[in-house]
Structures are given as C-alpha cells and as structure tokens.
Write a structure and sequence with these properties.
Layout: H1 3-11, E1 18-24, E2 30-32, H2 35-40, E3 45-46, H3 50-58, E4 60-62, E5 68-72, E6 75-81, E7 86-92, E8 98-102, E9 110-115, E10 121-125, E11 132-135, H4 140-145, E12 147-149, E13 156-160, E14 164-170, H5 176-180
Parallel strand pairs: 1-6, 7-11, 9-14
Antiparallel strand pairs: 1-2, 2-3, 4-5, 5-6, 7-8, 9-10, 10-11, 12-13, 13-14
Pfam families: DUF2944
InterPro entries: DUF2944
Protein name: DUF2946 family protein
C-alpha cells in the first residue's frame, strides 16, 4: 500500500466505502462503472491511464470476508469481479520457460490448475489462502501447447516448465468463488 494512502487512512479513518464503481473484467482490464453502466449491467469504460492503473494495482487487497477492494486514499472502493480477483497471462520466453504474470505485473507460481465447464482455465498458487487466477483467453493456445487433455477435455495434465506436472481438475464456474474464498460482487454495505 502506498504511503500516501496510509497517511489518508490515519487522517480520515471513517470515510464510507463504495461499491459498483470499479470492475476487474474477465481479461484483467480495470473498468470504471458510472451510474448508467451500473444500471444497465454494463462492464463500464476501460481505465487506460497508466499512473492510475499502477495506483490501483499497488493498493488492491481483500478484506477479511473475501471482498476485494482498491484503497483509494481513505476510501475503500470495492471491486466487482468479472470472474476471479486475479487474471494471468501465460507466455514462454526464448528458452521455452513459462511465465505467469497477473494483471498487477506480479509473477504467479501455479500449484494447481482447473478447467471450468466453459473451457476457462484457472490456476491456484501456494499462498495462504490460495489465490485463484483465471487465464486470459488469448493465452489458451500457449496453455494447450503445454497440456495433455483427456478425451472429455475436462481432465488431463499441465506441464509447468518441464519440472512439475499439475493435474488438470474440473471445477464448476459457479463454485470457484466459494472454493477460493472470494466475493464476486461485494455487498452495498461493505
């Protein structure tokens, strides 16, 4: 968390939180949701300002009930999640070493891999509690190059850097939030 945010929290400790105004979509894009977007159920406008994106990413966290928020100075802005609190990109460097990087630019070391009924790929890491990250759909080809799928395409193995073989487990999309302890749509009284 930025020092300026910590200072604002001390100076103004009782600023009410807000919900509905910020979304992390299924592809890891931060979106601003005005009243019209919220009323229509639209994902809102993508945030493109690099400094603001950096500020959001540095001050992104979860509360004790699994609701993710951006600490905007003294105010918590709870985040609507398009799927999971983290979205990862999968790439291979020139030597074929795989790298997973989350939307905030951090590395993600997978310890488990899942597939949902829509073909979405999810990774979990070893943090406590485990973080859940959905794979950006543009990286499915890279994933498939390093995976062996069973005939039903709901099971198989993922070969992580030729060192670790992670079983590919089926997981219903509707069960992901409960399994990993996060809230997709924070309560209005957060």
């Amino acid at each position: 968390m930025d020092d300026i945010v910590r200072q604002a929290l001390v100076k103004w400790p009782n600023v009410p939180s807000c919900t509905g105004w910020l979304m992390l979509d299924r592809r890891g894009t931060w979106r601003m949701r005005d009243d019209a977007a919220q009323a229509s159920g639209s994902p809102g406008e993508p945030i493109r300002h690099e400094a603001l994106l950096g500020f959001i990413n540095r001050n992104y966290d979860a509360d004790e009930s699994g609701q993710w928020y951006f600490q905007n100075g003294p105010q918590r802005v709870y985040v609507e999640l398009g799927y999971t609190p983290w979205v990862v990109r999968l790439s291979a460097d020139a030597n074929g070493v795989l790298v997973l990087q989350d939307q905030a630019g951090g590395t993600f070391e997978p310890t488990a891999v899942f597939i949902d009924e829509e073909g979405g790929i999810l990774f979990a890491d070893s943090s406590a509690p485990a973080r859940a990250a959905v794979l950006h759909d543009h990286d499915l080809e890279v994933f498939s190059t390093h995976a062996t799928l069973a005939d039903d395409s709901m099971n198989g193995e993922f070969h992580w850097n030729n060192q670790v073989v992670l079983p590919l487990e089926a997981l219903r999309r509707g069960d992901v939030a409960a399994r990993f302890g996060f809230v997709s749509s924070p309560a209005a009284n957060a």
